[in-house]
Amino acid sequence: MGNGKPHRSVITLEQWDMPVSFDMEGKPVSLRDYLEGGHRALPFPSLTDDQRADLAAKRIELKPTYEIATIGAGVVTKERALDEIRTRTKLGGTLIEIETRVIVHLIDEASKRRS
Fold first, then answer.
1. Whole-angstrom Cα distance, residue 101 to residue 98?
2. What's the pLDDT score for residue 66?
3. Rounded to two decimals, what is the model's pTM?
4. DSSP string of 20-35, one letter each residue
5. DSSP per residue over the chain, as a string?
6. In sequence order, which residues have a C-beta less than 8 Å from that of residue 65 and are 6 or more positions away?
């Protein structure tokens, strides 16, 4: 940013293939496909709460490993995270919010690179 150095991508190859939305038929759409268009991806802001929960669960399922430490809940494994999201607990809502923020950031960063 003004220092002459190229902006390093924060988006890993794994993230390019992770879903960030759904298409009209409810199939997951990767970040790469979302940005390329033509896959009839639903705009992320238009997703319902249920779709965002499904998307968060799908993203966590696809990660080779997943573990998050929380104050109060302790260490949350992949299996527990998926259960918390599916049963819509308070912790599940927090996990959905984390994935939502990651998705918004990825879309924003990837969009900047395309322009």
1. 5
2. 93
3. 0.86
4. EEEBTTS-EEEHHHHH
5. --SSPPPPP---HHHHHSEEEEBTTS-EEEHHHHHH--S-BPPGGG--HHHHHHHHHHHHHHSS--EEEETTTEEEEHHHHHHHHHTT-HHHHHHHHHHHHHHHHHHHHHHHHH-
6. 78
CA distance linking residue 46 with residue 28, whole number of Å? 15
Q: Residue 102: what pLDDT?
A: 95
Give the pLDDT confidence score for residue 4 in this predicted structure. Answer: 44
Mean pLDDT by 10 residues, the chain (115 residues): 51 93 95 88 95 97 92 91 97 96 95 77
Give the contacts of 40 (CB within 8 A, at least 6 positions apart).
23, 24
> Which of 61-66's residues contact partners 24+ apart within 8 Å by CB, and which partners?
62/18, 62/19
